[in-house]
What we know:
Blueprint: H1 2-14, H2 18-26, H3 41-45, H4 50-74, H5 78-93, H6 106-116, H7 118-135, H8 138-155, H9 160-176, H10 178-186
Helix pairs in contact: 1-4, 1-5, 2-4, 4-5, 4-6, 5-9, 6-7, 6-9, 7-8, 8-9
Amino acid sequence: MLTLFFVVAAYLLGSISFAVVTSRAFGIADPRTYGSGNPGATNVLRSGKKLAAALTLLGDAAKGWLAVMLAMHFATHDAQVALVALAVFLGHVFPVFLKFRGGKGVATALGVLLALNGWLGLAALATWLVVAMVFRLSSLAALMAAFGAPLYAMMLGLPREWVLASAIMSMLLIWRHKSNIQNLLAGRESKIGRKASP
């Protein structure tokens, strides 16, 4: 019963879209109505409000971190932690509060990885930063970090349940970027910081 409670609570926490909440607080357009239409930090940045984008990133990462940290404190098995990690991520990607149409999960996945293991999270973050700085493409950076996360987890010798959870999150994250992959291949992908058209 404790596992079920934490999984449901993690999913509901993940379903809170900080992109939508922050946009409303700043009086800017719903991020689902411009740019890529994705309720995430990168799309909020296209509004021109850097603070709103930063708070979105922080909030989405924090909910992933909090859910997993609480699970690690109360759980008795690695599998329970893995289930909570997946639940909070799925909540962000398929949020009940937004009719199951959520973000791509990059920031929430980062929060989850940081909670599972600091070095794992930092390795994924470093991958994202390097690729983003070189190519100025958030989607490409996210894809490279997603590819790397399960490999980093294995290299660090983390529990197999956590490795599996990171692999599932990575596969879902890559799947959520399918339109970005098409744009990357066609050379049409929007670069970081490009302001959205009204």
